[in-house]
Design goal:
The chain has helices at about 5-20, 95-105, and strands at about 30-40, 40-50, 55-70, 75-80, 85. By secondary structure, the protein is of the alpha+beta class. It is globular and about 45 Å long.
Amino acid sequence: MPLPPLVKQLVEKKLSAYCQRKIPAHLHNEIRLTFKFRGNTVSLSESRPAFGMPEKGVEIPVAQFRYDPADNLWTLYCSDRNSRWHPDMEIDPVKDFDRLLQEIDRDPTGIYWG
């Protein structure tokens, strides 16, 4: 089931602004944050040149947000080394999407930005 249109618009606006401000302007040509919608899920990833092969790019999963329309709650997921998603046990599901972006920035365990 896809996200409700207004929810999707709001999240798209917030994530676009987040991706723009997270990467310093002088690195925008080399490193990009992107996001993709799939049903009730939004995945955030980092795109950058591969180590030792700058002509080849790699996509690194950063975070995933899952929306529960029944409860109007967002849950934050982190990726393991095999690109499998696991719930972030440091934060409970929330209604405020901005709270999840703050948690990614805070990154108390280093699971998002290392």
